Amino acid sequence: MRTSIATVCLSGGLVQKMYAAAEAGFDAIEIFEPDLVAAPQSPEEIRALADRLGLTLDLYQPFRDAEGVDESVFADVLRRAEAKFQLMRRLGIDLMLVCSNVGTATVDDDEVSARQLRRLGELAAAYDIRLAYEALAWGRFVDDYRRSWRIVELADHPNVGICLDSFHILSRGHDPKQIEEIPAEKIFFLQLADAPALSMDVLSWSRHHRLFPGEGSFDLPAFLAHVIRAGYDGPLSLEVFNDTFRQTDPVRTARQAQRSLRWLADRTADLLGDEAGHDGGLLPRLPDVAAPEAFDFVEIKAADTSGVEVLLEQLGFDFGGRHRSKQVRLWTWGQARIVCNDQPSSSPSPRIAAVGFDVPDSDPAAERAARLMAPPVHRRTYAGEQALRAFTSPDGTEVFCSHAADWIGEFGGGVAGAVDGGTRIDHVNLVQPWHSFDEAVLFYTSVLSLAPQPSQEVAGPAGLVRSQVMSSPAGGVRLPLNLLPSGHLPTDQQGHAQHIALACPDIIDVVAAARERGLRPLAVPGNYYDDLVARFGLAEDLVDTLRDLDLLYDRDADGEYLHCYTETVGEVFFELVERRESYDGYGAGNAPVRLARQATVG
Length: 602
What we know:
Layout: E1 3-6, H1 14-23, E2 28-32, H2 33-37, H3 43-53, E3 56-63, H4 71-91, E4 95-99, H5 110-125, E5 130-134, H6 145-155, E6 160-165, H7 166-170, E7 187-192, H8 202-209, H9 220-229, E8 236-238, H10 250-272, E9 295-302, H11 306-315, E10 318-323, E11 328-333, E12 336-342, E13 351-358, H12 362-371, E14 389-392, E15 398-402, H13 404-407, E16 411-413, E17 424-432, H14 437-448, E18 451-452, E19 456-460, E20 463-471, E21 478-483, E22 498-503, H15 507-516, H16 526-536, H17 540-549, E23 552-556, E24 559-565, E25 572-581, H18 591-600
Parallel strand pairs: 1-2, 1-8, 2-3, 3-4, 4-5, 5-6, 6-7, 7-8, 9-12, 13-15, 17-21, 22-25
Antiparallel strand pairs: 9-13, 10-11, 10-16, 11-12, 14-15, 17-22, 18-20, 19-20, 20-21, 23-24, 24-25
C-alpha cells in the first residue's frame, strides 16, 4: 500500500511539509498549488528534494473552473491549463486534479462538459499528463461522483479519468456502492478524509472541519472497500482541510495522518475478508488485539503525592506496599489499584501520569502500538522486575498494557486487601488540550481498539466542554476525553483537573464511612436538591440522604446513577459512583454543577 498526503494537511512551508511527510513514512505527496506559489524554491529544486527524501510527487492540485463554460471562457481555460502543464513537467508530476466548476459554469450539459474535458485531455497528452476529474460537493452543476463519471465516460479520452474523494461523496450522503462499477483504470486517484457529523453548509464543513480517518463519523472502511473492489491499486492519499492542523507541529500531524491510514487499511481488510481477489494483499494488517476489558492501575505522579495518599486512605483504600526499587507506593481497594509515584524532578502538583489497561498478552498489543507509531515509554527496570510494555498518548499520558499478576509481587510491606468484588475503577477522565483532541480519539481507537461514543457538550464556567467517551465493547473500560476550552491549560482552574471514578456497590454506606474517616466531598448547593425534587419526584427521605452526603443523582430509562466528588489535589480528584440497573451514562446533567463548584473552591 502506497500512502500519500496533500501538503494542505500540514502547517509550515512546502519544504517543511515535505520533510514531515517523509519522516512519517509517506511514499508520496500531493502538491497544493498555493504551497508551491509561496515557496522560494524553484520547481526543479522541489523535484530534487523529493528525490532525496524518497517521495514521489503524485498529484498537482487544484485546477478549477475548467468545464461547463462557453467557448470564449474555455479558450482561457486552455491557456491556463497549458501553463500548468509546463510547470508540472518541471516538477515531474504527471497527474493534475481538475475540480468540477463552482464559479464560471453556465452550461448545464454533460455533452458540453465532456467535450471540454476531452479537449483538455488532448492538450495534456502532449505533455504526458493525465487529468483526474473530481465532483466537488458544492459544484454548481456537477456535485455527484456518478455524474462526474458519466462525463468522463462521454469524454472517452485515455488521459481523462476520475478522482474519488470520500468527503465530497459522503458529506452529500451519496451511496458509494456504485464506485464498484467504475473501471479500475479510470480511477486515477483517491483522496480520503473523515469529518464529524455537523449541520452546516458543506463548503464551510469541508474547509474547516475535515479530519483524518478514524476521527470522525464517516464509515471510511466501507467506503474504501468499494474502491478496492473496483480494482483501484493506487496510493491512499489524505486531503484534510482543518484549522487545527494548520497550527500544529507538521511532524506530529504527519505521524497522526500515517496512523490513520494504517488503521483504515486494517479495518478495510477486515471488511474485505476472504473475498476473491481482495485477500488483503494490497492492505497491510495490524496485529489483532481485542480491546482491554478492565483497568489494571492508574499512576499519579508528583514531587510529593502525600496529599493524594491522605485522600485515598479517607476513601477506603488499603496501603498495598512499597516498590522494591522505586519511590512508588501501591494503594488497593477491591479491584481498584492506584500507584503513587514520588519523583523529585516531577511537578509539585499531583497529576495522572499513566493508565494501565489489563490485557491478557502485552506483546501483540505493544507491537500494534509500534506499527501505529505510538512513541514507546522507557522506564528503568532491574533484574527480577517485570518489564511492562508502554507507549505515550497524545496528551503525554503513558499507556501500559499490563496485568496485575505480573507486577504486584514487586510491592511489599503493605496490607493484603480483598480483591474480589467490591470497588473497581469505573472510568478515568482525561482532559485533552485543544490541539490534540481528535488525535487522542484516533489514538485510542486505533491502538487500543476502543470505540468512540457520540460526543456531548456540557456548560462550564469557562465555556462549553466537549466530552467523548472511548469504551470497550462490554463497558469494562470507559475513558472519557474532555476538550478544554481554547486557551486553558489543566492547571488554569480545578474544574479542568483529571479524575478517577471508582464504582462501589453501595455508595451511601461507602460515603458515610469515608466521611467518618475525614473525607469532605465537594459541597453541592442546596438549590441542586430543590431542582432534583422537581426533575425526578424523588422520595423526601432519599433527597435528605443525598443532601446530607453531598451525593448527586441521575436517572434514565435504564437505571439510576448516584455519585459524588472529592476535593481536588493538584490536578487530580476522585469520583465515587454507583450504577443501578443498566445505567450507562455519566450524570452529564450534573457536570455543570460540579464544574461551577470546582471553579470556586479554594
